[in-house]
Specification:
The protein is of the alpha/beta class and about 350 residues long. It has ten helices and 14 strands.
């Protein structure tokens, strides 16, 4: 008979210590195994060389180590790397390493597919299959950290939750993954180097503020006019801008952390002066900056990047209102690794 073995990485350190004690062993053994699982990233019990053979066999009989596997790795001619990551149940998500002169950033997924319906995003066309577990998120970061060391001779410096899925719809697991990423028992990274990007779920933004999280917040705004935003991000009907605004004011009041608005300017959608004026007004509610993202085409031309004059107008008007603007060029377009292009095509 096949009994289903438990995933050992679902246990906390305390639970592992208790398990060893219940086996008549020392609780300290739990710490050793925990270190193997998280800091040293062991994929097998066999690899845990300072643990006795009998103990390893006992672990093998009781547990499995569910680890992600990088199925395929594509390298762009700009140095960007895209991983197709296979999960223990066969589903696939994608994660990306983006190198620049000063940093290497991991763009990680939080869900398999996405339940939101942004009309310009390739991931939105995939059904949401399930949430990722904390370790599946953590493993993506570890895999990219190794690739960064291997191909760029430096460890990972930043993490953005801008891969597949809506992180705030898998909030608990994202938080647990970040705890591990920032913990000295995990990767020991500073939370200031982590950005969680959301399409804007007001209730969860408030929850994050209440939880006093230390990472940064980015909101995919794309329009500060309800009618326009609903036409490109239909869930805006359920979470209208007034609710988003209230949640962001709450966020700033509690955390004193500035917000980044991600914003794509599309021809004929949000490229007029009234669109910029609405954005300027929205930026006044809480200290914020605007990141103008280049559009990465995913379809047969329904959405088109606005003309450069429109982008220039955005930049000028925002700057005239003392709002910091950055313009983000796409990376990894040739391998479908850029924002909004992640859809398991490879
Ligand atoms: N669900 C989260 C994170 C994933 S999307 C969110 O919405 O923020 C990461 C970023 O890519 C978001 O700002 C999103 O609006 C943007 N994006 C989606 N499709 C895009 C595309 N085709 N071109 C450029 N940016 C896109």
């Amino acid at each position: 008979m096949n009994t289903i073995k438990k995933d050992i990485r679902a246990l906390t350190k305390e639970q592992l210590r208790d398990f060893f004690e219940s086996q008549g062993d020392k609780a300290f053994r739990g710490n050793q195994v925990y270190e193997w699982l998280w800091q040293k990233g062991a994929h097998t019990f066999e690899a845990m060389t300072n643990i006795s053979k009998e103990t390893r066999q006992m672990l093998e009989a009781n547990f499995v180590i569910n680890h992600i596997r990088v199925d395929t790795m594509q390298r762009s001619n700009d140095g960007t790397i895209k991983n197709a990551v296979r999960l223990h149940d066969g589903l696939i998500v994608e994660s990306v390493l983006i190198p620049t002169a000063s940093r290497t950033t991991a763009c990680v997924s939080s869900q398999v597919g996405c339940s939101l319906d942004c009309r310009f995003c390739a991931t939105a066309r995939l059904k949401r299959m399930r949430n990722l577990n904390p370790d599946e998120i953590y493993d993506q970061v570890v895999a990219i950290d190794s690739e960064s060391k291997l191909y760029h001779n430096r460890p990972l410096s930043n993490i953005v939750f801008m891969g597949m899925g809506e992180p705030l719809m898998n909030y608990n697991n994202v938080l647990k993954a970040i705890d591990k990423i920032t913990s000295p028992e995990g990767l020991g990274m500073s939370p200031k180097r982590i950005v969680v990007s959301t399409s804007g779920v007001p209730k969860m933004i408030k929850k994050m503020a209440d939880d006093n999280v230390r990472f940064k917040l980015a909101v995919s705004l794309h329009s500060a006019i309800d009618e326009v935003r609903t036409s490109i991000m239909p869930f805006n009907e359920t979470f209208p801008l007034a609710d988003l605004r209230e949640a962001l004011e709450y966020w700033y009041a509690k955390t004193k952390n500035t917000i980044t608005y991600e914003y794509v300017v599309w021809e004929g959608i949000n490229d007029q002066r009234k669109d910029v004026d609405a954005l300027v007004q929205f930026c006044k509610f809480a200290p914020s900056k605007v990141n103008l993202i280049e559009y990465n085409p995913i379809d047969d031309g329904e959405f088109q990047q606005a003309k450069s004059e429109a982008i220039d107008m955005y930049q000028k008007v925002l700057e005239a209102n003392n709002i910091t603007v950055t313009i983000r060029r796409s990376r990894g377009k040739d391998i479908d690794a850029a924002c909004g292009q992640l859809a398991n095509k490879s």
